[in-house]
Amino acid sequence: MATTPETTEQGSTFTGNRQKVAAHLTQNEPLLFEKSSPGKRGYRLPPLDVPEADAAKLLGDAARTEAPELPELSEIEIIRHFTRLSTWNYAIDLGMYPLGSCTMKYNPRVNEFVSRLEGIAEAHPYQPESLSQGALQVLHTLEKALIEITGMDTITLQPAAGAHGEFTGILLTRAYHESKGNPRRKVLIPDSAHGTNPATAAVCGYQVENLRSNQHGMVDIDQLAKQVDDQTAALMLTNPSTIGVFEAEIHKIADVLHSKGALLYMDGANMNALCGKTRPGDFGVDVMHLNLHKTFSTPHGGGGPGSGPVACKKILEPFLPTPVVRENADGTLRLDYDRPHSVGRVRMFYGNFGMFVRALAYILANGPDGLRQTTEDAVLNANYIRKKLEGYYELPYKTPSMHEVVFSDKKQQARGIKTGDIAKRLIDYGFHPYTVSFPLIVPGALMIEPTESESKEELDLFIDAMQQIAREVEENPLLVLQAPHATRVKRMDETAAARKPILRWKGAPSREPLTVDTAAKEW
Amino acid sequence: MRYLPKSDAERQSMLREIGSSSIDDLFSSIPAEYRLARDLDIPRQMGESEIVDFFKKAAAQNANGYVSFLGAGAYRHYRPVVIDALVQRGEFLTSYTPYQPEITQGTLQAIFEFQTMICELTGMDIANASMYDGSTGAAEAVMMAVRVTGRSGALVAKTVHPEYREVLATYAQHQNIDKQVLAYGEDGRVDLKALDAALTDQSACVLVQSPNFFGVVEDIPAIAEIAHKKGALLIVSIAEAVSLGAVRPPREADIVSMESQSFGVALSYGGPYCGVIAAKEKYLRQMPGRLAGQTVDKDGTRGFVLTLSTREQHIRREKATSNICTNQALVALMATIFMSVYGKEGIRELALHNLAKAQYASQVLSQNGAKLLFAGTPRFHEFVLLTDEPTDTINTRLLDDKIIGGLSLQRFYPELGNASLWCATELTTREQIDQTAKLLAGSHSTQPTLVHA
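The joint structure predicted for all components is written out below.
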């Protein structure tokens, strides 16, 4: 491919080679409200086969008198509106999405297909159990598979997302300690943890005590032993950690906690590094959540829906949320609500059922051999990237990587370039950025998680882009500082957004110009 | 494995480049005694056609082709096909939370449009990008009111969806929130006198649902006046979003927590659905969850970003307004498309169809012995029938004709006796209602013996 020269406003020339992407026009599109005009319709209801309702008479003062200002559009305009919007998004379906910790893997289409089968999509949560056996079978089969995969004894699928799973897991922990006579006061959380961990502990009424990582970014066993006492409810540990490293002394960690009656909670955000290779239940974990939208391929959908099942050991079983699925003597399934020690319900109905269907379809498509190969490929990909980039970016922790690798921008900082700038420049090369500035224990972190879904070709393109950017930082830092150059919008004013929040469209459309396309100038 | 884009030769060459002799080298940090030396005991790898068969069999064991009068927080409405066509575009389906606004403007603008339309419908100033669902949304709204007021009491109407109340109880148990249940009166609405008597200067909020679990529309202005007199916030939970096309928005509320499942989201045996919290602007800083805001880029071009994230867990950690991270973005997009399809006129027309069907159904179904409870109070599209026979007996009979009758209230409201909650939507036909009425005949009413909470 030919080298594409690029000129910034300052006139310096880009001599890199963008193999993955070429300039491409996208359509401009205003807000729905700015396109609306009275009288247009995108729907037609069938004729009413019962007498018309007089809202004023039936509802009295409770009748709505002024219509909400919803847009008025025809169907083709709606299709174009959202299709145009969609083309402004990056997605896994377009290419590698190496957001560390978020696990952006391929979302198989058969999952979408089966979740839309009529008997599944149209199942009402209160339809009789005799007419829900298929749905209960999905729940039950998925539960059994996840219990086997995690090596735990029992599970609830009810939590709606990972953070909701954490909440449920810590509630179980608390109920367990209460049953022993003392809920205990604090939860230990490593400084490398996801922000949801401390937020969860706080919601469950615990004090959060920070646990400092050692020089390898891992749990400092001596420090842990000092901090664990008879008021410690649990340690919330992500394993592999957020720097992508397996806690090799996990059994010692569990022993230290258990010797003081505390539990080991595992944040299962990184279960995709373990699936089929090792089981948390075997290495001392008492309770953990899974993210079906990470390890088990359900789509992220621009930020959800997720699903956060919680698997645990037998000691926590009595406290699981209501209801649980149980087998009748005749082999049929039922929902059991008679659970006197339950922590209660964490969500209405039974959880994000549609996500269970997708996750189960994924497990069936893989089988034991596929899940293991998936994990191996994810780890292989991360290590391949690490090997190819370690000469270009600082590797703060030399410990072996599992499914993700965390670099820092230390070398680039010397030229005034930060991780966020490199991330923006990566967009020009046709990739979604890695996770920026997380985990917090690595200043200026570049957290890269390729997942198993990337071919060697895609990985090599990514590696090439990252190497080129490293060179640009040396030769033409301005190019990186001003990136991205090719996007519809560039470097949004986030301070203004927060200082004077505009959170909804208001009133008549201003005559402000539509988005100005400046791509031609840059390319 | 068909999802994995690598040949064994490529794997080997990558291992060589890394300098590892085998893939197991890369797992050497896992202590040997914890490495799984066997296959997982799960079903074998299946071909795509086998997977489809598996789920077709499961689907066939669920209700198929039944007429249903079930509602109770999960509503059967027509879902325009453009919704599924659009949300299955990979750029929406397989995108992540829009942390990089330059390449996620599609999702961000759609969220901004969602927030705007939710404000329009609910009469609130601001709305967030979504919550998990109506039940957790209501619990988060109560926690929000506790933070805003610095008070700890929460008065919760017994007419709020019982499962929402169960979720709230779970959330509140370690938050030092003092929860009190508010009785309903003969009209199926919050008992205003009981409300007035229960409010104290420690009441953070009053949580009501409208239309409530019985389908009855609460007197929001009156409840608001009583709550505000004592300095408590009013939280209105809305389980049936379509009602807002015909029922006046709860403008007097301070916080509205809404379940948007009715806006084009499949029933899917209870989820995923889409909660959302809307509020008065002055409570912005205590709002949980993500918010999209309008701004400009360095060239002055309009665009959208996630904003005010200093409220959120990834910045504030244990001091965050909530631990919520992932929300229901794709489901919120479904709701956004639904609202654009129906639009200003359509949402009203749709709501009026629901109102008309339920009005007709409530009359016809209560002609042959069943009694309509709370008959004189304004309702949307659900109603409570009181029957001589137990609901289960009636429903079993109806199932023979492939009709799923109303939800028995035995589990949630045993004090109502043989009461059941029925729902009719625009999809319920006159023929179905008439046939059900015939089958209901033979059931005779008894006088309700109301035992109030």
